[in-house]
Design a protein that fits this description.
The chain has four helices and seven strands. The chain is an alpha+beta fold. Helix 1 runs antiparallel to helix 2. The longest helix is centred in the last third of the chain and has 38 residues.
């Protein structure tokens, strides 16, 4: 997972990436609907231009029409790129130690926050509406006791599976910490026994 090096670095060699989660593809598709409508309007206006704008028969009118069409096409392309960029770079990384949220806001703003499993108090899912229910995507909220009161995985696919994955990691972590505490108690007791004898 070399491409994640830009977002995710860990000082702990034991930390392993369990899952990398993006928003559901349908969320991006919904954002592209206005672009598709504008493209359809541009194609129709281009093909009907001689009939609707009959006074554009002169050269200056045609140049103005093509300039406006080209400018709108450029704006649509840039807007489409920003939507894809935001979709691709908005990720949640679930590791065996923590959850990392990389939130891309526009082209030049990125917020990276992390949450350790020991701070998690509650996990809830919210799947609302016809398409989210059919396509199995929705929001997953992780309530915490830390500085950030909650982590929200927005419009992720299969939120129930992600919830069970996080719960599984929490249980593993608590089992590991319980076994470590038992080992510490055994070590302390044996060292005390050694000093008493």
């Amino acid at each position: 997972m070399k491409s994640l090096d830009y977002y995710f670095t860990s000082g702990n060699p034991d930390e392993k990436i369990i899952a990398v989660i993006h928003r559901h593809w349908f969320n991006m598709f919904l954002q592209y609907i206005p672009i598709l409508i504008l493209l359809a309007v541009m194609i129709v206006s281009y093909s009907l231009q001689p009939y609707i704008f009959s006074d554009f028969t002169n050269e200056a009118g045609r140049k103005l029409f093509y300039f406006v069409q080209s400018f709108l096409l450029l704006c649509i392309w840039i807007y489409g790129f920003v939507i894809w960029f935001d979709y691709y770079l908005d990720i949640w990384i679930i590791t065996n130690k923590r959850i990392v949220n990389v939130e891309q806001k526009g082209l030049f703003s990125r917020k990276v926050s992390e949450l350790e499993y020991k701070h998690i108090q509650d996990i809830s899912t919210d799947v609302r509406g016809f398409f989210p229910t059919i396509l199995n995507y929705g929001d997953l909220t992780v309530q915490t006791a830390a500085e950030m009161s909650h982590f929200i995985f927005r419009s992720v696919g299969n939120p129930y599976k992600i919830k069970s994955l996080i719960i599984k990691q929490i249980k593993k972590r608590s089992e590991n910490s319980d076994s470590n505490k038992k080992e510490e108690k055994t070590t302390k007791k044996s060292s005390l026994d050694h000093w008493i004898k």
